[in-house]
Design goal:
- By secondary structure, the chain is an alpha+beta fold.
- The chain has six helices and ten strands, in the order αααββααβαβββββββ.
- The chain has one domain.
- Strands 1-2-3-6-5 form a five-stranded antiparallel sheet. It has a three-stranded antiparallel sheet with strand order 4-7-8. Strands 9-10 form a two-stranded antiparallel ribbon.
- Strand 7 and strand 8 form a beta hairpin.
- Helix 3 runs antiparallel to helix 4.
- 25% of the residues are buried.
C-alpha cells in the first residue's frame, strides 16, 4: 500500500516536459502544446457578430453587432515568454538540430515589454486602427491598476487576423499577483482569459 502512495507522489511531482527536456529535442506535438495549450498560451472560444453588408460604418470601422457567426477558436499567447520563443525557434528547425546564430540572438534578446498575441480573429479585425485596438485592452491584477498597451498591431495570418499587443513593464507583474487576466473589448464583444502566474515559472523565474 505504501508503495502505491509513493508512486502516486512521484507522478504528481514529475516535471513538465519543458522543464526536463532541451527545447531543441521537443517533438512537434510538444511545440503545438506550448504554443496553444500551456501556462503561456490558452485557447478560448468566442462568438463574433457578422460584419454588416450595408455601406454604413460603425464606431470601429464597420464592426457592428449583427447575426452571430459560429463560435471562433482563439489562442492568446505570451509571446515574450521564453518557452513560447523557444517553441517558435524549434518550429523552424528539425527536432534535435542545432540553433543557428540568428535564432540564438532572437532567444537572447530582451523583449521591450509584455508581448501578448491573439490569433484566429475574424477578418474584420484587420480593418481596425491601432488606436481602436488599444482603447479597451488591458492586463488586470487584483488590487492593482490595469496595465494598458503601448502598441497594438493587426496582422493578416493564415487563419484570420493576429493582433500583437505590447504592454509596458513599468509596473512589473510579479508572482505575488497570483493571476493576471488579459482583457480586450471591441464593440459588444469581450475577449478575456486568466493566467496563473505560479504555473508560468520557467527555469526558476517568472516568464511573461
Amino acid at each position: 500500500m505504501s508503495g502505491i502512495v509513493l508512486l502516486a507522489g512521484a507522478v504528481l511531482a514529475a516535471a513538465d516536459f519543458w522543464e526536463e527536456t532541451e527545447f531543441t529535442a521537443w517533438s512537434d506535438k510538444d511545440v503545438e502544446k506550448i504554443m496553444n495549450d500551456s501556462p503561456w498560451a490558452k485557447r478560448l472560444t468566442v462568438r463574433f457578430p457578422r460584419p454588416p453588408r450595408a455601406s454604413g460604418v460603425g464606431r470601429f470601422g464597420g464592426f457592428r453587432p449583427g447575426t452571430s457567426t459560429p463560435q471562433t477558436r482563439l489562442v492568446i499567447q505570451w509571446q515574450s515568454a521564453q518557452p513560447i520563443r523557444q517553441a517558435m525557434v524549434r518550429g523552424r528547425i528539425e527536432q534535435g538540430d542545432t540553433v543557428d546564430p540568428e535564432a540564438q540572438a532572437f532567444l537572447d534578446q530582451s523583449a521591450p515589454g509584455y508581448v501578448v498575441v491573439v490569433t484566429g480573429l475574424p477578418g474584420q479585425f484587420g480593418r481596425l486602427t491601432p488606436e481602436a485596438l488599444m482603447a479597451e485592452a488591458r492586463l488586470e491584477r487584483k488590487g492593482k491598476s490595469p496595465i494598458v498597451p503601448a502598441q497594438a498591431q493587426p496582422q493578416r495570418a493564415e487563419r484570420g487576423v493576429t493582433i500583437v499587443y505590447l504592454f509596458p513593464k513599468d509596473d512589473a507583474i510579479v508572482l505575488e499577483d497570483k493571476e493576471v487576466e488579459f482583457i480586450t473589448e471591441v464593440g459588444d464583444v469581450t475577449i478575456k482569459k486568466k493566467f496563473t502566474l505560479e504555473d508560468m515559472v520557467f527555469n526558476d523565474q517568472l516568464e511573461l
